[in-house]
Amino acid sequence: MVAQNGTGNQNVEAEKLDVLESTQTVIKEALDKLGYPDEVYELLKEPMRMMTVRIPVRMDDGSTKIFTGYRAQHNDSVGPTKGGVRFHPEVTDTEVKALSIWMSLKAGIVDLPYGGGKGGIICDPRNMSFRELERLSRGYVRAISQIVGPTKDIPAPDVFTNSQIMAWMMDEYSRIREFDSPGFITGKPLVLGGSHGRESATAKGVTICIREAAKKQGIPLEGARVVVQGFGNAGSFLAKFMHDEGAKIIGISDAYGALYDPEGLDIDYLLDRRDSFGTVTKLFKNTISNKELLELDCDILVPAAIENQITEQNAHNIKAQIVVEAANGPTTLRATKILTDRGILLVPDVLASSGGVTVSYFEWVQNNQGFYWTEKEVDERLEKVLINSFNNVYNTSKNRKVNMRLAAYMVGVRKMAEASRFRGWI
Ligand code: NAD
């Protein structure tokens, strides 16, 4: 049976199935390389728990609309599960499952005491009012409240969800439990126990990975030509950080098109003009397509938007020497092989975009302790974690003669497999 989504689009559904199957393929390869028996793969290939909920929401016009939501908990052998909640019309149960597995891998790579979780609601927040979004966010928490909590499963922001939505969700959970529970969710506003540096953490992590990858490839960041696909939370902060590192951002894009200037774009101006959904290109006449953007002549390419952007169709045309995946799943497995065979250093999503979950973990630790850190402390800790993790994956890739994606999966899956074994599950 194919997964259901808001559009009913068979292509979208097939793509999401492909993402899950690709993830399972690499997990199997990683476990085989590490010498684990088949039952470990059988345990880890799907989430241990998957909940589907139907959420009635009173709309502003007085009608009631029923939304479908999901929460997947991949593996809680290491600790509580953790991962974002996505609001998007094309969310499917298959996608949420795959994303929860990726969260487990990320937690393993940066060595956090978590397993992976993920949530999603089929909806289009761009067409919903502020109050409708609040009712939907609260309804979702009521629907999943039995299986989540600060020591069970800790949600966070993802595509089209933000700190305001986290605040409503935290408030709803605290009301249900009848005590204040800031550690129930991360990505909250600072005044509600959010962490300094959380909003820009994913982009900071990507920046650290780019810096380390550039060192390995002998590319100086000063003057390096960078292309970023997507100008939302991850992409826009990243463009700013790379610009501040002295790189030249020659291309950026959003869902409606891309901007290109070989002399470098005015990032501060674009940041100022982008809307809360990461849209900015609509303001310009001279745009190029996302397809053209990916194939631009540049040193570093950062897909920071959606899945399946680099495929076997365009992998041969990618001109960057380094591809760093800020988005989840932007490169297919076939494209990974093509890029690697061409000598392009690909830093995979499960490593490159793990800055977000790392600072989410810092936020949860601060909430549990009731003791808060400065932005400098957060940044220093993040830097240390990411540099170690990058080098761990890079060295595994060199020592075991495998590509960076397989190396990252080998690092990411090991702790879960060991913890499941010690618990006597397998
Ligand atoms: P966002 O919603 O803030 O921004 C998404 C951006 O992608 C927007 O600029 C949007 O216009 C653009 N986009 C949407 N559809 C597109 C399309 N078809 N073609 C080109 N561009 C398109 O989302 P975000 O939080 O920046 O997340 C982006 C990616 O990074 C996702 O894959 C997400 O899972 C991943 N990620 C984000 C975080 C985080 O903390 N924000 C953490 C880990 C991974």
UniProtKB/TrEMBL annotation:
InterPro entries: Aminoacid_DH-like_N_sf, Glu/Leu/Phe/Val/Trp_DH, Glu/Leu/Phe/Val/Trp_DH_C, Glu/Leu/Phe/Val/Trp_DH_dimer, Glu/Leu/Phe/Val_DH_AS, Glu_DH, NAD(P)-bd_dom_sf, NAD_bind_Glu_DH. Residues 195-424 form the Glutamate/phenylalanine/leucine/valine/L-tryptophan dehydrogenase C-terminal domain. GO terms for biological process: L-glutamate catabolic process. GO terms for molecular function: glutamate dehydrogenase (NAD+) activity; nucleotide binding. Substrate binds at residues 82, 106, 360. The record marks 158 as: Important for catalysis. Belongs to the Glu/Leu/Phe/Val dehydrogenases family. This is Glutamate dehydrogenase. The lineage of its organism: Bacteria, Bacillati, Bacillota, Bacilli, Bacillales. The gene is gudB.
